[in-house]
Amino acid sequence: HEVLFFCPDYSALETVYPNWRDYTGNILPGVIIINLHSTPFLDLDFERNVSIKSYQTLLRELEKFKPDIVHVDEPERLFFGFFRRTGIDYARKAKIPCVCFFRTNFLEYADDYIPLPPAGIAAVRYVFKKIFLWIYNAYDLTMFTSPITYEKNVKMGVKNAVYANLLGFDSDKFSPSFREEGFFAKNYGLPEADKGVKLIFLSRLTPDKGWGFGLKAFARVKEIVNLENVAILVVGDGPMFGEIKEGLKALNLKVYLLGRVAPDRVPALLANSDIHVTNSEKENRGLTVIEAFASGIPVIAPRAGGVVENIEDGVNGFLYVPQDIEDLARKLKLLIESSKLREEMGRKGLECVGKYDWEESVSNLVAIWKERVRRS
Question: In whole angstroms, what separates CA 69 from the centre of its chain?
């Protein structure tokens, strides 16, 4: 196979991704990556989207490459960069299939980013729903890797939806064996964080990740759970950084905000933590949940979105009732107070990650491509 891969230019994030140039150009036999001029997305500098300036570059490179099929990730996101249904015009002109992949539940972000009363939010969501359906239904296929998200979008009106196991991760990069004594003292200068139970939050510090609920919840959790020997590790960056920092520290908790860390440091952070906590109710599938399992630690998450397909409640983690602070506190208490339960759930989580191996996921994706090319 030969692959031409377009992605946003990450030169603006060189401090976070110092080796980003290693992933541009002819990086592997038959694989060429082209970086397109990018701008911040959702007002987050570290989230990039393509810009209209690069659209002609896209067309020019497609004409040179002459693909047999075009695959588009997050076409609604690209629409707000190119102001076009990306790939459609070229594919129709070239008479080749054009498929897309649904990655993010953007429609559900309206409550988090648009400061309007409920009636206004409903109107905005209605308009965007029409736009999204117009975008997705233009493609030959829209692929989903979550059965829950697939069913929800079919009911909404996506007519070309296909579900397949396409979720994969670098399983060889995550392992409980990365755990070491005094890890946070050695690597982050935080000897206090090595003491007691470590809760790790790993996400963007943005409203859609459930931080509003999380801050309210910890005020109550503190009353129910003894957090004296608990370290709260927050890994990530975003506009809520200051609010989260002040909110948690006002509760006199042992909080360590590590900011945005390089991806290659995440496996060791997870392996040296004890519980991964997420408050996000809008995940399509939740990759950090899989990464936590591969690191041998249990996960606590709301019973909402695609994460429920990964977490078996009471087996490899806990699912709490969304927005129910008491339920979250009860389940967090169980895990904090029982190292035996954490270890058992960690083992169960480790057992379930094999099906998310990249080889199987990529094979499934290539099979879909081949079938569309065959039928075209």
Answer: 26
End-to-end CA gap in the chain: 18
- Please count the CA atoms within 13 angstroms of the CA of 31 that sit on its side-chain side: 6
311-346 burial: b if 16+ Cβ within 10 Å, else e: beeeebbbbbebeebebbbebbebbbeeeeebeebb
- pLDDT tier for residue 284 given thresholds of 50, 70 and 90: confident
Domain definitions of the chain by residue range: 3-168+357-375, 171-355
CATH for 3-168+357-375 (3.30.565.10, 3.40.50.2000, 3.40.50.300, 3.40.190.10): 3.40.50.2000
Give 313's DSSP letter: B
Q: Is 77 helix (H, G, I), strand (E, B) or coil?
A: helix
Contact 153, 146 (CB under 8 A): no
β-strand pairing of 44-50 with 230-235: unpaired
User: For 171-355, CATH number?
Assistant: 3.40.50.2000
Dump pLDDT digits (tens) for 98-110: 999 999 888 877 7
What is the residue-averaged pLDDT of the chain?
92
**How do the residues of the chain divide into helix, strand and coil, expressed in percent and rounded to 5?**
50, 20, 30
Nearest Cα to Cα of residue 267 among 259, 256, 276: 276
Q: Report whether 171 contacts 357 (CB < 8 A).
A: yes
Does the pLDDT at position 13 exceed 80? no
Residue 287 identity: L
- What is the pTM for the complete model shown? 0.89
The pLDDT tens digits for 313-372 are 999 999 999 999 999 999 999 999 999 999 999 999 999 998 888 888 999 999 999 999
- β-partners of residue 235 are 202, 259
Give the C-alpha separation, 76 to 240, whole Å. 25
Q: What percent of the chain has pLDDT over 90?
A: 71
Same fold, 3-168+357-375 and 171-355: yes
